[in-house]
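Quick start: what a row looks like.
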Amino acid sequence: MQCQFLEDFQPTVMMCTASMGLLMAEEISKRGIKDRINLKKITIGSERSSDAMRKHIRELLGLEDLYDVSGMTELYGPGAGVECSYHTGIHYWADYYIAEFLDPDTLKPVPEGEIGEMVITTLKKGSSPLIRYRTRDLTRLMPGECPCGSINAET
């Protein structure tokens, strides 16, 4: 049914989980309908994906680009940050939350570039604010500035 939607409506962008993106890419390839769809870009989220998986999806579909988006229900759902076209990491939305990167055992800050647990304090969430919420996600703050100009990248 999803393949038929892609053929009938000719969307240029699709948003889905990483596993659905892979499933769709493989199904489109298996059916030989790549030339009958018009997808240019895909945004994936809700699941972790590898560089190899994203590359495979891009190649199977002949995409211009594929972006990763992060999020969690406790924060703002899907959409707490997104990759730019340089793919240097996910740019988190610093105007919506403060992200800290801490050693999960000592709760001391880790230096830029080192893996730590992401701890969040929300800035605009009125009904259920989070103060130093431990996400249990291990990630790191990328040092320096992305070529797009953002300084808020994490992987």
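That is the whole record. The mean pLDDT is 91. The longest strand covers residues 65-72.
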